[in-house]
Design goal:
The strands form three sheets. A seven-stranded mixed sheet has the order 2-8-7-6-5-3-4, with helices on both faces. Strands 9-12-11 form a three-stranded antiparallel sheet. The chain is globular and about 60 Å long. The protein is α/β, with parallel strands linked by helices and about 400 residues long. The protein folds into two domains: about 150 residues, Aspartate Aminotransferase, domain 1; about 240 residues, Type I PLP-dependent aspartate aminotransferase-like (Major domain) (Aspartate Aminotransferase, domain 2). α8 links the parallel β5 and β6. It has 15 helices and twelve strands.
């Protein structure tokens, strides 16, 4: 049989794969690629977290199966984080669950709350799992353009009026991946009010809550009175503590949805390796100056990127939060689209970025630049970009001739 499996057929070709293939080939050929493509933190995990992992793994009792919902000490640490950071009380027994990164938690909650044919409202552009977690669960996706928070909210109102059947859930993501936009608590109040009026559940992705550059830190939707009636919020230690490979995240909020996620996980996994969970609790309970230091590093990289690329001829808006810049394609290359532009940038400037089209149709016209190279490398990339932009007309003519 050569027929593709049903769920696999629902997944489109991976837009990033073509750039990744070219990147791998260039590196195999010995080329120095400055890689801004993946949001993969490059900083070391803070020492006290690593030390706790090593200490715990020496105990042979920790080699046994763990708890799929997360060990109680970790769930208590997660609840304390919400109290300390947002002034929100969550019950570690009923309203918090540890996940294998926020991505796994999101996809498994989609499985838990979705019936075949349900309609889900998803921002576009968005991190791919926001849509594809529900697509894999059998839902129909209604994409809502999210070029700005205001546009997204207006789109929600239109989508609810015209969606058949009526939508059952909405995904919200601020600080946003990929656009790096932020919202205030008033926006969340409007979303909660709207969702309650329309009988919608809300999945809020707050993975970048601790990477911000303004004085006011991003709020949590759970700060809105009554939000726990309908909201589950996802967070991650990957970005906050430079722990991406540790795969540790968590969800907090509505007891019914947390319970449903726990039921799904109980059939699928035994939780993260216990020493990782203990170390994660040490991260949340321990000194937070390491978070401040990493935030300052990201800010320095952001400023270096905006300054050096601007002087190279590529004007990029300064992100207020997240570890990304959402960069409009330079005017002369815009007709090519984000994928072809990304390929040219890789081939001629030795700089890798993520094509905006990979985050949805409304991501076209942009690329996402991850702040995962140091300031020296960022400035080196800017020098390469300057030469690339200067040679732009010739590059396009050669490309057209080759076609």
């Amino acid at each position: 049989m050569t027929t593709e499996f049903h769920r696999i057929k629902r997944l489109p070709p991976y837009v990033f794969e073509e750039v990744n293939r070219l990147k791998a080939k260039a590196r195999a050929d010995g080329e120095d690629i400055i890689d801004f493509g993946m949001g993969n933190p490059d900083m070391p995990t803070p020492k006290h977290i690593v030390d706790k992992l090593i200490e715990t793994v020496r105990d042979p009792r920790t080699n046994r199966y763990s708890a799929s919902r997360g060990i109680l000490g970790l769930r208590k640490a997660m609840a304390k984080y919400y109290g300390r950071r947002f002034g929100v009380k969550v019950d570690p027994e009923k309203e918090v669950i540890a996940t294998l990164g926020s991505k796994e938690g999101f996809a498994n909650l989609a499985q838990a709350i979705t019936a075949p044919g349900d309609t889900i409202l998803v921002p576009n552009p968005a991190y791919p799992i926001h849509a594809f977690g529900f697509i894999l669960a059998g839902a129909a996706i209604r994409h809502v353009e999210a070029s700005s928070p205001e546009q997204f909210f207006r789109g929600l109102e239109r989508a609810v009026r015209h969606a058949v059947p009526p939508p059952t859930a909405v995904v919200v993501n601020y600080p946003s991946n990929p656009t790096a936009q932020v919202v205030g608590l008033d926006f969340y109040k409007d979303v909660v009010k709207f969702a309650k009026e329309k009988n919608l559940l809300v999945l809020s992705d707050l993975a970048y809550a601790e990477i911000y550059f303004d004085k006011e830190p991003p709020p949590s939707m759970l700060q809105v009175p009554g939000a726990k009636d309908i909201v589950v919020e996802f967070n991650s230690l990957s970005k906050t503590y430079a722990m991406p490979g540790w795969r540790m995240g968590f969800a907090a909020g509505n007891e019914r949805m947390i319970h449903a996620l726990g039921r799904i996980k109980s059939y699928l996994d035994y939780g993260a390796f216990t020493p990782i969970q203990v170390a994660a609790a040490a991260a949340l309970n321990g000194p937070q100056d390491c978070v401040d230091e990493m935030r300052a590093i990201y800010k320095g990289r952001r400023d270096a990127l905006i300054d050096s690329f601007g002087r190279a001829g590529w004007t990029i808006p300064a992100p207020a939060a997240s570890m990304f810049a959402w960069a409009p394609i330079p005017e002369q290359f815009r007709p090519l689209g984000s994928l072809e532009f990304s390929k040219l940038l890789l081939q001629h400037a030795k700089v890798a970025v993520a094509p905006g089209a990979g985050f949805g149709e409304y991501g076209e016209g942009h690329v996402r630049i991850a702040l995962v190279e140091n300031e020296q490398r960022i400035r080196q990339a800017a020098r390469n970009v300057r030469k690339f932009l200067s040679a732009g007309p010739g590059i396009q003519e050669a490309k057209d001739a080759a076609q």
